Amino acid sequence: MTDSGKKNICEECSKAGIMQCGNCKSVFYCSREHQIKNWQLHKLKCNILKQQFFSKQEQQQPAAKPVVKPIEKPVVKPFEKTVQLFVYNLSSITTEKQLQEQFSKVGTVVSVFLPYSRTIKRGFGFITMKYNYSNQAQLDKSNDLSGSDEILDKLTNIINNTLNYEQQVRIIKDPSFQITPGANESQNIEQIFASNDLNDDEKAQKLNNLYIQYQKEINEKLLLIFEVETLSVIQSRLNNCSTASERVLMNIVDLITERNAFMPTIQDISIVRRKTILLTDIRKSYLDTKIERILRIKFAEDEKNEIKQYSELTEQLVRIFLNIHKGQDIGPDMIEISVSVIVQMIISQEQGSIKQNDDEQGKMEKDISIIDDEERNRKLDSFRKIINALGGASRFNLNNQQRIIDLLKSRNCVEFILNFNCENDPIAHDGKVSPQLRDFHAGIQKILKKQLNKDPIEQEQEQKSKQQEQVQEQKQSKGQEQFNEQIEDEEEQEEKDKYEKMKSDKDKREKQEEDGEE
């Protein structure tokens, strides 16, 4: 029960009620005892009176104002994306901190990784960034493998306006690529060759499994895998390529050097030339020297054959050698070897030794035709690769370009090269000319035009000058020991000539003295 400020009549005794029913708020009592005494009668109508009381209260109260909720603005999510960058042409003193400060001007730098090889920085690195694109269209464009990228434009602008103007950057488009140090492949390869439980065929199979895996990797991943230690193991296990395991290992070298040749070139400060990214590691491992030695041996062996046909291994070695030396000076003797092999391949292509059989022939002929088609495509692909390598060797080196074109011209092979892998050529692969071939074609046409407009006397003088240069280069290319022996022989001959002359003069004087005395 609750107290009430109003004077009402007690339901039990009709006196002034001072206490109100706490449930219905409609009846009054003078005391607690009278409420209990009257409850048996009151409880029958208490709930009804309660409903009437509260209904009346609600009618008397003013209507509540509607609650107006604030309008929530939609949250605009930023067009953020994680971007993986490949940075190359770095100096040996570039640090991870410097790259982080430089690239943080564009976005959030998550990580920076600079790989080492024998405690020396390799001149390239990997950066993971989070970047907010300006709109959805730019974000979608960044996923296009052939499209330009907003972040790349901004980074290039920053790099061009700093002292690191030689530094270059490109975006890794493969989303599956992880910027982590590669596994120690040198141990994997060495364990296969050193195993006493495997015969050569089993070793070749295991190496071929590695080769298949390497084919699936992107170029940047191969750069991580094949550092000096791995290349040194490969070099030490390559001898004369007389075993199946060595041939598979040579296929791995072919893959590495071809992919490396298609990567961007960097500035070789020591000789002011362009070079491939892996060239320094290849030279430190002496793999380039080993490839040249094997190529000279195989070329000499093939030269002794009456058929005058170079083996597939020799063709592969030429391709590897040219890819390694992209942009570098190549000696005239090695250019002579390379062009000789390529010319023979051109002759084979022109002869069309592999022909398709007619569809009306028997099943055996059809089966042979299928094999011939595969063989023809394989040879075309091999020839295409070696011409690409030849174009790459002359692309950034005018000396190589001039020597190569002169040799091709002297053997009437220039026209075939110009028409190969282009839209008008029926044997074109896809109707597109690679950058190496495009520049190679342009270089050939430029030199031919220049030679065509030369005066005959000028051409003769230039030819003599070239012959003198070749003689000088041949002298320089000889071993130091042979050169010293030649000098010693010449000096010895001079001493003999002097002695003979002195003896002859002495005899003459003695004879004159004898004649005078007489």
From TrEMBL:
Transmembrane segments: none annotated. InterPro entries: Nucleotide-bd_a/b_plait_sf, RBD_domain_sf, RBM, RRM_dom, Znf_MYND. Residues 454-518 are annotated as: Disordered. Keywords: Metal-binding, RNA-binding, Zinc, Zinc-finger. One of its GO terms (molecular function) is zinc ion binding. SMART domains: RRM. Pfam families: RRM_1, zf-MYND. Gene3D superfamilies: 3.30.70.330, 6.10.140.2220. CDD domains: RRM_SF (cd00590). This is MYND-type domain-containing protein. Residues 454-467, 495-512 have a biased composition (Basic and acidic residues). Residues 10-46 form the MYND-type domain. Residues 83-147 form the RRM domain. SUPFAM superfamilies: HIT/MYND zinc finger-like, RNA-binding domain, RBD.
